[in-house]
Amino acid sequence: MVVGLQFGDEGKGRVVDLLAGGYDVVARYQGGANAGHTVVAMGRKFVFHLLPSGMLYPGKLCVVGNGVVLDPEQFFRELEELGPERAEVLVSGCAHVVMPYHKVLDALEEEAKERRIGTTRRGIGPAYADKHGRSGIRVYDLCDERGFAEKLRPILELKNRVIERVYGGRPLSFEEVYEPYADYGRRLKPFVGDASSAILEALRGGRRVLFEGAQGVMLDVDVGTYPYVTSSSTTSAGACVGTGVPPTAVGRVIGVVKAYATRVGEGPFPTELEGDLGEHLRRVGHEYGATTGRPRRCGWLDLVALKYAVEVSGAEALAITKLDVLKGLEEIRVCVAYVDAGGTRRERFVPETGFLSQVKPVYRSFKGWDEDLSGCRKLEDLPSAAREYVEFLASQLGAEVLMVGVGASREETILCSSWR
Ligand code: IMP
Question: Residue 384: exposed, middle, or buried by beta-carbon count in 10 A (0-12, 13-18, 19+)?
Fold first, then answer.
């Protein structure tokens, strides 16, 4: 299982793409088209928002699990962009559909809020709210043409009342929603099935399954920095609920951590760098949202938060990405503790925005390096300062290093002996 240990954008896509070659099934279990998983392979850049990052492997099966909220428009756009050389796709009939009114409401709710979340406006929050409020439309419903019309009519009426009367927005006509979505339902049918059974059967048959998380632990709706989170369970536990497999089915959890920290959207970020250094990381690391294009907030690595993320996700192995971005810095800092408003040193993370917005980071300083890392293929190839940084992270997080990213392409990777 691959899980992001920060605020998303850790580079899970490239890790899954690399790992996928050794697996038979790759399954996404939560989130929707709010994700932006970038893979650079075969001289091309692919950005997956909804489809699993294992899609580049013909012969594999990629699953969109029941915990995902599916935007059909995005689904077909990504399939089209990939062309015929791709993995097979199975979509869980139990996945909920992101409807046009979810996107409208996502934007209207954000505009109306005094304290915005900074959502991606992909309809994610409203779609999950309907799922849990039991007024959602599932993929199965979408594929049942008659039933879909009957389900949609009263739901749309209610949504329109909210859009119009609460927010003063433009209501959506039945036809403008029904016609294209009934068509999506028809087109989706060949991809739809019982994804949970398919994964369980694969496991029973001794095949290897890779669960692909989206976003990161800090954006988890329960254990993240609520309310500045996404609306799904982004930790490893979410994989079971989001694909319909028991916790006993899960083997190793791989935590993905970028060599520095970024956050897109609002919410506390104790190690944020607002000056030139932050700008430098943004520029060198191309830190702009893969989904929205928004500039990402950049900062130093936060070990207090990372230790918590490792604990709640059960990560035993680390994939460290973008180490190359730190090249050329005289000093690299890592937050090893916080000091709270009363001056007390705090070493344990508390997922509470009041606490996180008043703490100040305590840093440990590391020497930087000037060498280009892109040719390194073993940990021993790294300059000693870079190696020291990686070893410090691994020892503090109590996890073995599986891989280190030293450039954007598949090849620019250090694979450690624990790989596979
Ligand atoms: P939503 O998921 O669109 O509702 O957005 C909620 C919060 O999660 C916002 O701060 C988003 O910027 C953030 N977010 C959602 N998806 C991602 C992602 O894939 N990477 C990074 N941040 C994300």
Answer: exposed
For the beta carbon of residue 248, count every other beta carbon within 10 angstroms: 6
**Same domain? 183 vs 199:** no
pTM of the full structure? 0.96
Tens-place pLDDT, residues 139-175: 999 999 899 999 999 999 999 999 999 999 999 999 9
- CATH number reported for the structural domain that contains residue 64 in this entry: 3.90.170.10
Compute CA distances 381 → 14, 142, 166, 292, 322, whole Å.
Answer: 21, 53, 60, 36, 16
Q: Are residues 161 and 202 in the same domain?
A: no
Q: Which residues are annotated as catalytic? A: 9, 37
Residue-range definition of the domain harbouring residue 290: 2-85+195-415
Considering the domain architecture, whether residues 227 and 342 belong to the same structural domain is answered as yes
Pocket mutation for ligand 1, best pick of 6, 48, 71, 215 (most atoms within 8 Å of C-beta):
215
209, β-bridge pairs: 25
For residue 120, which atom of ligand 1 is closest to its CA?
3
